[in-house]
Amino acid sequence: MAARIGIDTGGTFTDVVRWRRDGVLVHKLPSTPRDPSQAVLRGVAAVRRTPTEPVDVVHGTTVGLNAVLTGDLARTAFVTNAGCEDLVEIGRQERADLYALAPQRAVPPAPRELRVGARCRRGPGGVVDQSLARAEIARVVAAVRKLRPEAVAIGLLHAPDDDADEQALARALRAALPDVPVTTSAELHPATGEYERFTAAILNAAIAPVVGRYTARLAAGLGNGALRLLRQSLGILTPDEAQRFPARALFSGPAGGVLATAQLLAHLGLPRGAAFDMGGTSADVCLVEDGAAVHEDGAIAGLPMPLPSVPVHTVGCGGGSIAYVDQGGALRVGPQSAGADPGPACYGTGDQPTVTDAHVALGHLGPDTLLGGGFPIDVDAAVRALERLGRKAGLSPLAAARGVLQIADATMARAVLAITAERAVDPAHVPLVAYGGAGGLHATGLVARLGMPAAYVPPLPGAFSALGLALAGEGSERSVACHAVLDANTLPRVLRLARELADAARRALGVRGRTNVVAHVRYAGQGACLRLRADRRLVAAFAREHQRRYGFALPAAIEVVRLTARAEAPRRSLPTYVEHTGDPGQQGRIAMRRAPLGGKKVRVVMRADVRSAGVVGPAVVEEPTATTVVPAGWRAMLQGSALRLTRT
Predict the structure, then answer these.
(1) CATH for 3-68+212-249 (3.30.420.40, 3.30.9.10, 3.30.465.10, 3.40.50.720)
(2) CATH tag, 475-568
(3) What does the alpha-carbon distance between residue 18 and residue 466 come to, in Å, rounded to a whole number?
(4) What's the pLDDT at 587?
(5) What is the pairing mode between strands 303-305 and 514-523?
(6) How far apart are CA 260 and CA 249, in angstroms?
(7) Among 382, 329, 330, which residue's Cα sits nearest to residue 357?
(8) What's the pLDDT at 311?
(9) How confident is the model at residue 10 (pLDDT cuts 50, 70, 90)?
């Protein structure tokens, strides 16, 4: 049987987790931003028993995401109905920044000169208004070929009701351009809302060559093994689906951490929690309730991304976030990051002060903290960087270091509020699950700011997202447009269609697993939908959830516009034993560390030595992949496999 390996590539470190029945083997190494595949292949080699051992690699990658954010995309042509070529540029009548004097609207990566109109039209329900003639197909293909595209997206009006015209165009374009990936909007996202659906199709097409080249390079380097991606709504994508629809894995890395958080919360008997993943470049937060919830109102680079995804909110604040003084003399942190190269000043190759440097200067991180001493820290370089920052800000180095951490906490606290208070959830009832290389360093700061009940630091926090990837089971999704105003006559028909869709998802999965069907429901005429379980209590559930979320419910007609079925194979369980490559075996070490900028010494305790009585702050709890700060007035105790942080 192939060895299961989960790999999460971040901006600073690449995390590798090999699953075993008796536990997991963890390896962490610096990322290679110019070619992420280099670090991935080195990580696989480090946990492989032999170079030819068969492996099953589940990868969380940001290659597609980074391509969109940086604009490094394929030359993409867009085929739509004649007269609708500008729809993706007109968008919605929304202004993200109400006070911008010269607002800039984000435009999908298919400029006007690369859009081709096809003379055909369908109306609501897929009824043909103007048929798509063979001669018109030939004309469109010829026009697209002249554009010399690297990818093609097709989006036609009302295609979710009947996508025959999209499929006819796609067949002709694939025959004429066999090496060019073609995306049809109704296959990718069979939902109403042409702007959102068309944009998703264009983005999927634009990243397909980029992601395809990356995964092909990785697959070739693996040799005897399989490479698969995690769906951003959880569940492993089949290789064919990942190749055709890479946009379904745009946020696959953060999704791994959300999956592992859901497992941890279930293990602890907690109904909800705020997943908080702070790495080297950014911090990701997600509200996890009764398993991982999914939404379809995401966005990327100012463009809608309506594909199902765990609702991760990201801010540019990580360990490598650069601290600076702005033109007004105020101390600021991020979103610019030192990343892995050159990295924070304490890495010895950069000189700009970062959040990590502030922790080093305050004694939270020592010269041998990272990777159990395998990644040495230059303490003096961190102190010099904070001294320069302090002079610019008119602060002492100690005040500058503390200020950097306070600003970082404030930035990330706003992100946690965005997933809790803004959704009518009181943070006082939501524990924080802190992971990532820097999550434990800021856990108590966020809990104190937001009045949260406690923080939990899971096992192997610095590679927790990679663990989630290793735990993932195979998944299959099927979605279909369904327009029905709910009443006693239509509800049974909707539920029958839901069962048929569930059967299709189950057959596509190919193994036993759990299946559920979600109905996309709204008041007739509304734009946004609520995702609710498709069962006989659907009408009452909609009124109850609408009241909870928006504060009101109406005696108005309710309609279902889409059904989505999901089948997922059983996931692996959280490990009881963790081993690290190159583990120095520092169990039993309890030491005092001098804070370089002065003040009281910091007590250092290894996580393996945290007993039932716990550790009372001030102290830091170290382990190979992460460090947890326990301030004065706080206690760290073991609860199950997690480290629980509460006020004393």
Answers:
(1) 3.30.420.40
(2) 3.30.1490
(3) 9
(4) 47
(5) unpaired
(6) 17
(7) 382
(8) 86
(9) confident
Half-sphere exposure of residue 586: CA atoms within 13 angstroms, side-chain side = 22
Q: How confident is the model at residue 578 (pLDDT cuts 50, 70, 90)?
A: low
CA distance 463 to 47: 14
- The answer to whether the CB of 122 falls within 8 A of the CB of 158 is yes
Show the CA angle centred on residue 427, arms to residues 426 and 429, nearest 5°: 80
pLDDT in tens, 191-235: 888 999 999 999 999 999 999 999 989 989 998 989 999 998 888
Phi and psi at 638, nearest 5°, equal: -85, 130
Considering only CA atoms, which of 148, 74, 68 is closest in space to residue 113? Answer: 148
Mean pLDDT of 177-199: 94
Is the whole-model pTM more than 0.90?
no
CATH of domain 69-211: 3.40.50
List Cβ neighbours of 482 (8 Å cut-off, separation of 6 or more).
494, 497, 519, 560, 561, 562, 563
Residue 588 has pLDDT above 60, yes or no: no
Could you count the other beta carbons within 10 Å of the beta carbon of residue 334? 22
pLDDT digits (tens, 9 = 90+) for 27-57: 988 888 888 899 999 999 999 999 999 999 9
Residue 119 Cα distances to 40, 84, 113, 173, 584, angstroms: 47, 10, 17, 16, 68
In order of 63, 259, 468, the CA distances from 8 in angstroms are: 11, 13, 9
Which residues, in sequence order, are CB contacts of 160 under 8 Å at separation 6+?
186, 190, 191, 192, 197, 481, 562
pLDDT tens per residue across span 478-507: 999 888 999 989 999 999 999 999 999 999
For the chain, what are the domain ranges?
3-68+212-249, 69-211, 475-568, 581-647
Give alpha helix (H) positions in 305-378.
355-361
Compute how many other C-beta atoms are within 10 angstroms of the C-beta atom of residue 60: 27
Token digits of residue 36? 């992420």
3-state secondary structure of 432: strand
SS3 percent helix, strand, coil of the chain, rounded to 5, is: 35, 25, 35
Tell me the per-residue pLDDT of 296-331, one tens digit each, with 9 for 90 and over. Answer: 778 888 888 899 888 888 888 889 899 999 989 999
Residue partners of 153: CB distance under 8 A and separation at least 6: 76, 77, 78, 79, 110, 182, 183, 185, 198, 201, 202, 204, 205, 206
What three-state secondary structure class fits 369? coil
575's CB contacts (< 8 A; 6+ apart) are 19, 23, 24, 459, 467
362-373: average pLDDT: 81
Burial of 167 (0-12, 13-18, 19+ CB in 10 A): middle
